[in-house]
Amino acid sequence: MPLSPAFARVPRFLGAAAGAALLLLAAAPSAGATIEPSETVTIDPTGLVAPDGTLTLSGTYRCLGGNGPVFVSSSLQQGDSYVRKGVGGTSAVCDGADHSWTNTDKAAPGRFRPGPARVEATVTELSGSGLPLPRFHAVRHQDITLVEG
């Protein structure tokens, strides 16, 4: 069946992007998501922001199992903006022991300044056959203070 003229003008990549967005939203942790209480992620109360825009966030994590690759990801938000900046990602080892994580990334100089900020840290496993789906081991939101470093 031929596409209507309105749909014929829509680039094909938009459909793929919309599908990917729906997949991520469906996989995001919900209020009812089950995370083992023995699996944790912490965020240090202080993060670093360098004059050149380099950001450093850190903390600890503990997770169990893990059949696929596991990562500790973090994002940073500051001020009234709802926009978050992803700050690196660290490979994780899910052996039940406590481990440290440190994520570093670079933002535009001046985008983040010393002062209050909000961080989200997530321990995520990519699992499944075929298209890897995220499995969340631990999630934490925390207010921190950025200091010049």
Structural class: mainly beta
- Summed over residues and divided by their number, the pLDDT gives a mean of 81
Fraction in beta strands: 35-45%
Radius of gyration: 18 Å
Shape: elongated
Percent helix: 10-25%
H-E order: HHEEEEEEEE
Give me the number of helical elements: 2
Number of strands: 8
List low-confidence stretches: 1-33
Largest sheet: 8 strands, mixed
Cα(first) to Cα(last) distance is 60 Å
Protein name: DUF6299 family protein
Organism: Streptomyces gottesmaniae
InterPro entries: DUF6299
Keywords: Signal
Report on the architecture of this protein.
This protein is mainly β. It has two helices and eight strands, in the order ααββββββββ. The chain has helices at 5-8, 12-27, and strands spanning 40-41, 46-49, 54-62, 70-77, 85-91, 99-106, 115-127, 133-148. Strands 1, 2, 3, 4, 5, 6, 7 and 8 form an eight-stranded mixed sheet that branches. The longest helix is centred in the N-terminal third of the chain and has 16 residues, at 12-27. Residues 1-33 have low confidence and may be disordered.
